[in-house]
Structures are given as structure tokens and as C-alpha cells.
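Justification of resources, computational component.

The compute hours requested in this renewal are based largely on the per-chain cost of generating structure records like the one below. Each record pairs the submitted sequence with a full C-alpha cell output. That output is archived, and it is also reused by downstream analysis tasks.
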Amino acid sequence: MITPRATPALAVCSIIALAASPARAKPAAAPLVSVAATPSQVTISGGGAKTIVLANRGPAPVAVDISAADFTFDRLGRAEIGPRTASPRSARTWLTVRPRLRTIAPGATADVRVSAHTPRGAEPGDHHALVLLTTRPVRRGPVAIRTRVGVLVLVRVSGKIVRRLDVGGVSAVRTGSSRLLQILVANRGNVTERLLPRAVSVSLIRAGRTVATLPALPRDLLPRTSGRLLVPYRGRLRGPVRAAVHVRPLRASLDGPGAPELRPFVRVFGLRL
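The structure output for this chain reads:
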């Protein structure tokens, strides 16, 4: 799923209250709408297709409107759905979703079929879009709640697949009584790089001794984009240190068809805390 800080699962979720309940209405004992999508990220090779399973975990029937949408990540990995300018690697117009509407009973599941139609001459590598699932209660109640869940779809076009990650530096930003380290990372390849938990870490070194090793928060980097990995730091170090950034990329066998192996590497930078 896509969250404000993108996780490996990659899904976007936002809840919108469309109507206020009367002052005397009692609060609901259970959520009116609770739908999960599995998997929350799919990779389709060329003109293939995949199935997404929807599960209604709420106490009432729910209707789900299904569509394809564009999205982008900002520098910190937060997702923006439906940007004004679509990415040049958008696959939204390539996707067909069936059906466009599902009604799911409490405790039941339903399938959604997602197929890709790759245009001739498409550039090799990953092209991205969302399958946007907008839910709404079937029965009327005192509060109308709609939930949006976005399942990331990567369409991988065959050809020369390139993986390359560059680390450009590390900076420290003070946030109240603590500090936040930011690692600048660029994806120079043509496939999405999933930086899972502990895939990237920073070792703080002073006088030749490693004082602390801190994991970066996970995120995804789309092809030919750059962004910042965030590393919370609450330690007591002050002044100049050396920051060794350790990168352990996802194994080729887990990175989709045709992906080459990308070896772990380390980059060292000066940093003032």
C-alpha cells in the first residue's frame, strides 16, 4: 500500500467523512467500512493480467468502485493521487479493470481482474499506475464514510532491464528535541527499487569507532527519480561525524522478471549533527 511514507506494500488509504452524524446519534460499535486488498502491489509482465482479492471485514455490505489512476511520490515518499501532470512512465491508460463495481457481503471476498495492454514501442522497464478502490456503504446510516485504497500496479516491459542506485549525501535536520537524518538517493535504473526495512542504514563514526547504526525508514523509488530516506536520531552526538550509508538492494529473484542482481555497497560522507 502507499502511505505518506511509502512502505514496501505500497497502498494509499484515505478516509473521507461525507456527512456528519446528528448530535444525538450513538457512535458505531464497529467500523462501517473495512475493506482489504490482497496483494497491495502487483507486477504485470508485458500484456499479462493479475487478480486482486478484496475482503470485506466490516459488519455491513459494501460497494467498491474500481478504476485506474495516476500517482507520483514527492521527495519524502508521500503519494499524490491524480497529479496535474502524469508521469512520462504512467501506465494508467494501459490498464483494464473488470468489473468496475463490486458489492461485497460482510465477511466475503471478491476478485478484481487487472490486465495490461502494452503499446508498441514502449520503453523497457517499469511503468506505474494505481488500481483505485473507492468504497461506500450499501445501507444508509447516520454517517456516510468512503475509503480509498490504491493498489500499486507495475507493468514491466521486456528489454534491457537496468538497476542502479546512487547515494548523493546525508544531512541532518533538527525536529524539536531530536534530529532527522535525510539520505539523498537516486534511482538511475528503469525499474522500481523497493527499499525494504533495514535495506538502508547509517553508521555514525567518530575517531574511527562506530557509535551508532540507524535503519532508514522504508520507501519505494520509481525509475529515474530521486528522493530522501528518513532516519530518526535521538542520540546525544553533536558536532562533526562520518556517516557510512549501507545499501542492501532487493535480491534479483524478488525484483520481478529480467531484473539483474544489484550488489550491496557503502558510501561515506561527512556530517555535522
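Residues 1-25 have pLDDT under 50 and may be disordered. The first strand starts at residue 11 and ends at 19.
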